């Protein structure tokens, strides 16, 4: 469908007439509504799954990285409304009392999801084979497993609207001496 819109856009842009520009605006709006509808369906399907936390990669710099992949891939990636999908996923998850955690994507595709060994040579195209333990799987599935583990372990970043306190921070706060009236926190001695 996106290829169809890209073809129509290119054809109309080459004409440059007033009617072509008007039709181009109409097609652009139609494409945006189509993409938003697809993003709503995808996010609804994800949030309906029986999980309380959803882990996704931080994709803020994906457009910069895509320049090295080739023109067809770059066009497809730049047309992908991943930020909109992210926002739909977050507000639908929040409405259902669920959370979305953002994960740093570094090394998720190079790390073995079984033994934890990180090596660039583990991944070759779509296949993943750990040089340390010999584990083999589709590379995207291996990366998805790593992202899931990071999401469950709390190594992701929750949005600011969801306060997150690790267990060791709670234990440290229990040791705060609240008897002193000045602003600086005082900790009880270890005696």
Key attributes of the depicted protein:
mainly alpha; 3-stranded antiparallel sheet; two-stranded parallel ribbon; disordered C terminus; 191 residues
Question: How would you characterize the overall build of this protein?
Answer:
- The protein has 191 residues and is mainly α.
- The protein has a domain at 1-49 and 61-90.
- 49% of the residues lie in helices and 12% in strands.
- It is built from 7 helices and 7 strands; from the N terminus they run H-H-E-H-H-H-E-E-E-E-H-H-E-E.
- The protein has helices at residues 2-15, 18-47, 62-65, 71-79, 82-95, 139-153, 167-174, and strands at 53-57, 99-103, 123-124, 127-129, 136-138, 176-177, 186-187.
- Strands 3-4-5 form a 3-stranded antiparallel sheet. The chain has a two-stranded parallel sheet with strand order 1-2. It has a two-stranded antiparallel ribbon with strand order 6-7.
- Helix 2 (18-47) runs parallel beside helix 5 (82-95).
- The radius of gyration is 23 Å and the shape is flat.
How would you sum up this structure in a few lines?
By secondary structure, the chain is mainly alpha-helical.
List the helices and strands and how they pair.
Elements: H1 2-15, H2 18-47, E1 53-57, H3 62-65, H4 71-79, H5 82-95, E2 99-103, E3 123-124, E4 127-129, E5 136-138, H6 139-153, H7 167-174, E6 176-177, E7 186-187
Parallel strand pairs: 1-2
Antiparallel strand pairs: 3-4, 4-5, 6-7
Helix pairs in contact: 1-2, 2-5
GO molecular function: DNA binding
Organism: Candidatus Methanoperedens nitratireducens
Keywords: DNA-binding
């Amino acid at each position: 469908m996106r290829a169809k819109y890209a073809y129509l856009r290119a054809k109309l842009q080459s004409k440059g007439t007033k009617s072509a520009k008007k039709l181009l605006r109409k097609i652009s709006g139609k494409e945006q509504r189509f993409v938003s509808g697809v993003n709503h369906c995808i996010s609804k399907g994800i949030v309906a799954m029986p999980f309380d936390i959803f882990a996704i990669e931080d994709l803020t710099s994906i457009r910069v990285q895509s320049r090295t992949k080739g023109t067809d891939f770059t066009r497809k990636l730049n047309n992908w409304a991943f930020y909109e999908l992210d926002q739909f996923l977050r507000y639908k998850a929040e409405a259902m009392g669920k959370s979305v955690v953002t994960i740093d994507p570094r090394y998720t595709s190079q790390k073995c999801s079984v033994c934890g060994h990180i090596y660039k040579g583990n991944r070759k195209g779509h296949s993943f084979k750990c040089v340390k333990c010999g584990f083999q799987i589709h590379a995207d599935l291996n990366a998805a497993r790593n992202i899931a583990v990071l999401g469950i372990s709390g190594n992701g970043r929750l949005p600011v609207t969801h306060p997150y306190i690790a267990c060791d921070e709670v234990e440290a706060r229990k040791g705060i001496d609240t008897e002193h009236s000045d602003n600086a926190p005082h900790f009880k001695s270890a005696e």
